[in-house]
Amino acid sequence: MADLLDITEVTRMTGLTARALRFYEARGLLQAVRDSSGRRQYGTAQLEALHRIMAMKRAGLTLAQIQSMTAGPRPDLHSIVAAQIQVLEAREREVAAARELLASILSRIERSEPIDVATFCSLIRQGENAMSQVKLDALASQYMSPEQNLAFREAVQALPADFDAEAHDKKWQALSARIKAALPLDPASPAAQAFLDEWDELAAPYIAACSAEALKGVSNMHEHIEEWDREVDAPFDAEVFRFHQAAQRARDAMHGPADR
C-alpha cells in the first residue's frame, strides 16, 4: 500500500483536478485501485496510464483518438502519430488555400481596388466552408478512429478531379426533400425502392473511393446521426437516413443482401 497515492495526493502532485481523474475513469481510460472504504488510489501502473493520456492530449489527439489508442493491449504510438501528422498535413493544405484567397483580397483592399460580387461570395464561402470543416472534423474525431478518419480523408481526395461535390450535395438534398415529402412510406413499396435506387446512385462515387476502413468509420458516424444532424449541414437528416436503412432492409429481405 505504500506505493499507492490517494486521489488527493495525485491532484496535489500532478496539478490535475479530481474531476478530471474521475472523468478519465468514467471513459474507461483509467482504472483506479479502491481501498477498503472505496476511495480511489493510484499506483505506478495507473500513473503510467495517466501520463500516456496527458502526453497524447498535449500532442493534440482528441479523446476519441486516445480511447482508440488505449483500447488494445498496448498503444501503437508510431501508427497513430503518423496518422495524426497526415491529418494535420491535409489541414495545412486547406489553410494554405484559404490564406492565398485572403491575401489576394487584402492586397486589393490595400490598393484601394473595389471588391467585386464574385470575390465577396468566395470570401463568404471560404468562411462557411471553414466552419463546416471544423464541425466535420469534430464529428470525425468523435465517431471515427484516427485510422478511419485518415482513410476517409484519403477517399475524399481520391474522388475524380471533375467530381463536383457541391452539385452532388444539391442532388442529394433534392432527393432527401422528395423522400421527406413522401413519408410515411412502406419501405418495401415500389416508390420506396425507387428512392433507394436514386440514393445508391448518389452514394456510388463515395463508396467506390472508400476503403473498408473508411466505410466502417462513416457507417459508425451515421449510426449516431440523431446526435449530430442538427449541428452539421448534411444533405439528409436522421429521419431520411433511417428511411433509407429501412428500405435497404426491405430489399435485402426480398432479394437477399447485396455485396455493398
Structural summary, described in words:
The chain is mainly alpha-helical and 260 residues long. The chain has three domains: 54 residues, Multidrug-efflux Transporter Regulator, Chain: A, Domain 2, CATH 1.10.1660.10; 71 residues; 91 residues. It is built from eleven helices and three strands. The protein has a three-stranded antiparallel β-sheet. A hairpin with a 5-residue loop joins strand 2 and strand 3. Helix 6 packs across helix 10, helix 7 packs across helix 10 and helix 8 packs antiparallel against helix 9. The protein is extended and about 65 Å long. The termini are far apart. The mean pLDDT is 79. Pfam families: MerR_1, TipAS. This is MerR family transcriptional regulator. One of its GO terms (molecular function) is DNA binding. InterPro entries: DNA-bd_dom_put_sf, MerR-type_HTH_dom, MerR_fam, TipAS_dom. It comes from Pseudoduganella albidiflava.
